[in-house]
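Researcher: First entry.
Model:
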Amino acid sequence: MSLASRISALASRVGLEVKTKIDATHPGVARAWVCFGYVGTQVVVRASHNVASVTRTAAGRYRVTFTVAMPDANYCWTALARSSTNSGTQRIAIVRSSTDQKTAQYVDISCATTAASFDDSSEINLTVFR
């Protein structure tokens, strides 16, 4: 057996082993993610996994509803927002106001400027791990 054949066989075995160890419930795999933005007068979802909808609740405030609920509300999420290049105003999507909620069914996120005012962004990327 040639070296190339042995490497190919080993790669196949490793792939099968990894496939049996890592599935959709593995904590290292994102349970949900979404790339969306507020464009014109509407929320535009560009791509997503396990996200049923994104609803704008107010300027810079969004509710992301999961297609399949999380096991509980003890998940980790992170989000980043695109800054406006026209005004140079940096936006952050890592804030949670006292009225934002986090349940097994959805998470509320807020996009704010560095001046602490809620503001929309043309691109927000959210990832959820559990």
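Researcher: Second entry.
Model:
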Amino acid sequence: MFRDDEKFLFNDWIFPNTLEDFRDKEVLECGCGGGQHTRFIAPYAKSVTAVDLNTADIARERNVDLSNVKFLESDIASMDLGKTFDVVFSVGVIHHTDDPDRTFENLKKHVKRGGKLIIWVYSEEGNSLVKNILEPIRKSLLCRLNKNALAWLAKGLTLLMYIPVYSLYLLPVKFLPYYEYFGNFRRLSFERNCLNVFDKLNAPQVKFIRREKVCAWFNAREFKDPCVTSYKGVSWRATGIKNG
């Protein structure tokens, strides 16, 4: 329905890593969606194993030209691929799983000693409006809509959002909720903004994750050079090198 073709956004999410960190590496992508991020890293990686529970077939069809990529249908929380990888990454997926702690542990298990783990997740900090107001509305009113209806709703809501984003949010009033986030909104295409809204409407569940939990995941006992940073005040990006 919508595509994610904004490479700058992917680069922001994996920061301080860059696409060069995937060069000549065996990579595991956990939650590949339609394979858009797979396409970003494939030219750099030695090989990519891209896993998704629901959309692996779609991703495979969209990326048939990528000879170094293998798409698998599996649950990233419980998969056992029988090998470890140089780089394991998961962008925007862990917070949609039943048990983020269990999911993270399984991702960590698939990282080689000395390999790198990269994640991006929604933060509890900065998301009280979504968590306490919008999420209950979504769960009670939108759960029965099919994807086509949700796609049209996402387009309508995205159009409405352009009004405050290009008026009130242009003023230097940084105390407004999602002020930093809407700075990105103005950089993205209408199609990409629709995808963001659609993903939020369509998600079966969302677990907002506190910084202290992410820091505990990337603890110094298990990871070298752990790095946890806020992104636009509504999410965490985190990375570390698994200790040998």
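Model: Note on the second entry: The chain is about 40% helix and 20% strand.
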